[in-house]
Design a protein that fits this description.
Length: 254
Protein backbone atom coordinates (compact mmCIF):
# COMPACT_ATOMS: atom_id res chain seq x y z
CA UNK A 1 0.00 0.00 0.00
CA UNK A 2 2.86 2.38 0.89
CA UNK A 3 4.52 1.60 -2.45
CA UNK A 4 1.33 2.47 -4.31
CA UNK A 5 1.05 5.73 -2.41
CA UNK A 6 4.64 6.62 -3.28
CA UNK A 7 4.07 5.76 -6.93
CA UNK A 8 0.89 7.81 -6.89
CA UNK A 9 2.74 10.78 -5.39
CA UNK A 10 5.53 10.51 -7.98
CA UNK A 11 2.94 10.31 -10.76
CA UNK A 12 1.11 13.35 -9.43
CA UNK A 13 4.33 15.34 -9.16
CA UNK A 14 5.30 14.37 -12.69
CA UNK A 15 1.94 15.53 -14.01
CA UNK A 16 2.17 18.78 -12.11
CA UNK A 17 5.72 19.37 -13.33
CA UNK A 18 4.40 19.71 -16.87
CA UNK A 19 2.25 22.66 -15.87
CA UNK A 20 3.49 26.18 -15.27
CA UNK A 21 2.40 28.27 -12.31
CA UNK A 22 3.36 31.80 -11.31
CA UNK A 23 4.55 30.25 -8.04
CA UNK A 24 4.13 26.93 -6.26
CA UNK A 25 5.11 25.69 -2.84
CA UNK A 26 6.52 22.22 -2.24
CA UNK A 27 5.49 21.11 1.25
CA UNK A 28 8.06 18.67 2.63
CA UNK A 29 7.36 15.89 5.12
CA UNK A 30 9.58 17.64 7.71
CA UNK A 31 7.31 20.69 7.62
CA UNK A 32 9.50 22.93 5.47
CA UNK A 33 8.11 24.63 2.39
CA UNK A 34 10.02 25.65 -0.74
CA UNK A 35 8.65 28.32 -3.04
CA UNK A 36 9.47 27.72 -6.70
CA UNK A 37 8.37 28.68 -10.21
CA UNK A 38 8.50 25.26 -11.84
CA UNK A 39 9.71 21.72 -11.19
CA UNK A 40 10.93 18.63 -12.95
CA UNK A 41 11.06 15.00 -11.82
CA UNK A 42 14.41 13.35 -12.49
CA UNK A 43 14.42 9.73 -11.39
CA UNK A 44 13.77 9.67 -7.65
CA UNK A 45 14.49 13.40 -7.33
CA UNK A 46 12.30 16.43 -7.91
CA UNK A 47 14.18 19.51 -9.12
CA UNK A 48 12.60 22.76 -7.96
CA UNK A 49 13.54 25.79 -10.05
CA UNK A 50 13.52 28.85 -7.81
CA UNK A 51 13.25 31.38 -10.62
CA UNK A 52 13.61 31.72 -14.39
CA UNK A 53 17.36 31.02 -14.22
CA UNK A 54 17.73 27.29 -15.07
CA UNK A 55 20.88 27.07 -12.93
CA UNK A 56 19.06 28.26 -9.81
CA UNK A 57 17.40 25.09 -8.47
CA UNK A 58 17.13 22.79 -5.46
CA UNK A 59 17.04 18.99 -5.73
CA UNK A 60 14.72 17.24 -3.25
CA UNK A 61 14.10 13.48 -2.95
CA UNK A 62 10.58 13.04 -4.31
CA UNK A 63 9.66 10.80 -1.37
CA UNK A 64 10.37 13.73 0.98
CA UNK A 65 7.71 15.92 -0.70
CA UNK A 66 4.31 15.59 0.93
CA UNK A 67 2.37 17.69 -1.57
CA UNK A 68 2.45 20.72 -3.86
CA UNK A 69 0.39 23.84 -3.31
CA UNK A 70 -0.28 26.43 -5.99
CA UNK A 71 0.32 29.95 -4.74
CA UNK A 72 -1.60 32.77 -6.46
CA UNK A 73 0.71 35.48 -7.74
CA UNK A 74 -0.84 38.16 -5.54
CA UNK A 75 -0.30 36.18 -2.32
CA UNK A 76 3.44 35.58 -2.75
CA UNK A 77 5.18 37.28 0.21
CA UNK A 78 7.14 40.42 -0.65
CA UNK A 79 10.34 38.91 0.77
CA UNK A 80 9.93 35.81 -1.40
CA UNK A 81 9.35 37.98 -4.48
CA UNK A 82 12.53 39.90 -3.73
CA UNK A 83 14.42 36.64 -3.51
CA UNK A 84 13.05 35.43 -6.85
CA UNK A 85 13.83 38.74 -8.55
CA UNK A 86 17.22 39.26 -6.92
CA UNK A 87 18.77 35.87 -6.12
CA UNK A 88 22.01 35.79 -4.15
CA UNK A 89 25.27 34.88 -5.86
CA UNK A 90 25.43 31.15 -5.08
CA UNK A 91 28.85 30.81 -6.72
CA UNK A 92 30.45 33.10 -4.12
CA UNK A 93 28.83 31.48 -1.08
CA UNK A 94 30.97 29.22 1.11
CA UNK A 95 28.92 27.86 4.05
CA UNK A 96 31.94 26.64 6.01
CA UNK A 97 33.71 30.00 5.77
CA UNK A 98 30.49 31.90 6.50
CA UNK A 99 29.86 29.86 9.65
CA UNK A 100 33.49 30.22 10.71
CA UNK A 101 33.36 34.01 10.33
CA UNK A 102 30.04 34.41 12.14
CA UNK A 103 31.04 32.02 14.94
CA UNK A 104 34.31 33.88 15.44
CA UNK A 105 32.51 37.22 15.61
CA UNK A 106 30.13 36.01 18.33
CA UNK A 107 32.47 33.56 20.06
CA UNK A 108 30.48 30.42 19.39
CA UNK A 109 31.61 26.95 18.37
CA UNK A 110 31.26 26.60 14.57
CA UNK A 111 30.07 23.03 15.05
CA UNK A 112 27.20 24.27 17.20
CA UNK A 113 26.11 26.79 14.57
CA UNK A 114 26.34 24.13 11.87
CA UNK A 115 24.21 21.76 13.95
CA UNK A 116 21.58 24.48 14.35
CA UNK A 117 21.56 25.09 10.59
CA UNK A 118 21.15 21.37 9.94
CA UNK A 119 18.17 21.16 12.31
CA UNK A 120 16.59 24.40 11.08
CA UNK A 121 16.79 24.08 7.31
CA UNK A 122 18.78 21.00 6.34
CA UNK A 123 21.26 23.44 4.69
CA UNK A 124 18.60 24.69 2.29
CA UNK A 125 19.22 28.43 1.78
CA UNK A 126 15.65 28.92 0.49
CA UNK A 127 13.79 26.93 3.13
CA UNK A 128 10.49 28.46 4.26
CA UNK A 129 8.56 26.99 7.18
CA UNK A 130 4.76 26.90 7.33
CA UNK A 131 5.00 29.66 9.97
CA UNK A 132 7.06 31.87 7.66
CA UNK A 133 10.60 31.36 8.98
CA UNK A 134 13.12 31.82 6.19
CA UNK A 135 16.58 30.77 5.09
CA UNK A 136 19.36 28.66 6.55
CA UNK A 137 18.76 29.59 10.18
CA UNK A 138 15.00 30.04 9.72
CA UNK A 139 14.61 33.66 10.76
CA UNK A 140 11.07 34.86 11.33
CA UNK A 141 10.38 38.11 9.42
CA UNK A 142 10.04 40.10 12.66
CA UNK A 143 13.28 38.67 14.06
CA UNK A 144 15.09 39.30 10.78
CA UNK A 145 13.92 42.93 10.83
CA UNK A 146 15.08 43.39 14.41
CA UNK A 147 18.48 41.98 13.46
CA UNK A 148 18.75 44.31 10.48
CA UNK A 149 18.42 41.63 7.80
CA UNK A 150 16.91 42.98 4.58
CA UNK A 151 16.88 39.66 2.70
CA UNK A 152 16.59 36.54 4.85
CA UNK A 153 17.41 34.39 1.81
CA UNK A 154 20.88 35.93 1.61
CA UNK A 155 22.82 33.08 3.26
CA UNK A 156 25.64 35.23 4.62
CA UNK A 157 23.28 37.74 6.21
CA UNK A 158 21.06 34.93 7.48
CA UNK A 159 23.89 32.99 9.16
CA UNK A 160 25.40 36.14 10.65
CA UNK A 161 22.07 37.24 12.11
CA UNK A 162 21.09 33.75 13.28
CA UNK A 163 24.44 33.31 15.03
CA UNK A 164 24.11 36.71 16.70
CA UNK A 165 20.61 35.83 17.85
CA UNK A 166 21.81 32.51 19.28
CA UNK A 167 24.56 34.34 21.18
CA UNK A 168 21.99 36.79 22.58
CA UNK A 169 19.84 33.90 23.77
CA UNK A 170 22.81 32.22 25.43
CA UNK A 171 23.61 35.42 27.30
CA UNK A 172 19.96 35.84 28.25
CA UNK A 173 19.84 32.38 29.82
CA UNK A 174 23.29 32.50 31.45
CA UNK A 175 24.79 30.28 28.76
CA UNK A 176 22.37 27.43 29.41
CA UNK A 177 22.57 25.83 25.97
CA UNK A 178 19.38 23.79 26.37
CA UNK A 179 17.29 26.84 27.23
CA UNK A 180 18.90 28.91 24.47
CA UNK A 181 18.17 26.28 21.83
CA UNK A 182 14.61 25.86 23.09
CA UNK A 183 14.15 29.63 22.90
CA UNK A 184 15.52 29.67 19.36
CA UNK A 185 12.83 27.16 18.40
CA UNK A 186 9.81 28.15 20.47
CA UNK A 187 10.61 31.76 21.33
CA UNK A 188 11.93 33.34 24.55
CA UNK A 189 8.41 34.06 25.76
CA UNK A 190 7.71 30.31 26.00
CA UNK A 191 10.88 29.69 28.01
CA UNK A 192 9.91 32.46 30.41
CA UNK A 193 6.34 31.16 30.61
CA UNK A 194 7.37 27.61 31.53
CA UNK A 195 10.60 28.57 33.36
CA UNK A 196 12.53 26.25 31.09
CA UNK A 197 12.00 24.08 28.04
CA UNK A 198 8.29 24.19 27.12
CA UNK A 199 6.35 20.88 27.05
CA UNK A 200 6.24 20.77 23.26
CA UNK A 201 7.32 17.58 21.52
CA UNK A 202 8.66 19.59 18.56
CA UNK A 203 10.87 21.75 20.78
CA UNK A 204 12.17 18.84 22.86
CA UNK A 205 12.98 16.84 19.71
CA UNK A 206 14.62 19.89 18.16
CA UNK A 207 16.92 20.45 21.14
CA UNK A 208 17.80 16.75 21.37
CA UNK A 209 18.58 16.62 17.65
CA UNK A 210 21.02 19.54 17.84
CA UNK A 211 22.75 18.29 20.97
CA UNK A 212 23.10 14.81 19.47
CA UNK A 213 24.51 16.17 16.20
CA UNK A 214 26.89 18.52 18.04
CA UNK A 215 28.18 15.76 20.31
CA UNK A 216 28.61 13.48 17.31
CA UNK A 217 30.84 16.08 15.65
CA UNK A 218 32.95 16.45 18.78
CA UNK A 219 33.38 12.71 19.24
CA UNK A 220 34.38 12.34 15.59
CA UNK A 221 36.91 15.17 15.91
CA UNK A 222 38.33 13.67 19.09
CA UNK A 223 38.64 10.27 17.44
CA UNK A 224 40.34 11.76 14.37
CA UNK A 225 42.82 13.64 16.57
CA UNK A 226 43.63 10.50 18.55
CA UNK A 227 44.24 8.51 15.37
CA UNK A 228 46.43 11.23 13.87
CA UNK A 229 48.58 11.63 16.99
CA UNK A 230 51.94 9.81 16.76
CA UNK A 231 52.25 6.82 19.03
CA UNK A 232 54.75 7.32 21.85
CA UNK A 233 57.34 4.66 22.55
CA UNK A 234 57.05 3.66 26.22
CA UNK A 235 60.15 4.58 28.23
CA UNK A 236 61.77 2.12 30.62
CA UNK A 237 62.67 3.45 34.07
CA UNK A 238 65.51 1.68 35.86
CA UNK A 239 64.26 -0.35 38.80
CA UNK A 240 66.61 1.34 41.28
CA UNK A 241 65.40 4.82 40.38
CA UNK A 242 62.59 6.09 42.60
CA UNK A 243 62.52 9.68 41.26
CA UNK A 244 59.02 10.87 40.31
CA UNK A 245 58.32 13.43 37.61
CA UNK A 246 56.40 16.47 38.81
CA UNK A 247 53.19 17.19 36.92
CA UNK A 248 53.16 20.54 35.14
CA UNK A 249 50.65 22.94 36.63
CA UNK A 250 48.58 25.23 34.36
CA UNK A 251 49.38 28.94 34.64
CA UNK A 252 47.07 30.93 36.87
CA UNK A 253 45.07 33.60 35.10
CA UNK A 254 45.03 36.90 36.95
Amino acid sequence: MKTLLKLGLCSALLTLSLATYAADTAILRNGFAILHQRREVIGATTRLYINADPSNFVDIPTAEIDHIEAVPELTVPAAAKAEITHPFDAASFDLTETVKTASGAYQLDPDLVTSVIRAESGFNVRAVSPKGAQGLMQLMPQTATQLGVQNAFDPKANVEAGTRYLRELLERYNFDLIKALAAYNAGPQRIDQYHGVPPYYETKAYVARIVRDFNKKKLAAKSATAQAAPKKTPSVTPAKSKTKLAQAQPPVQN
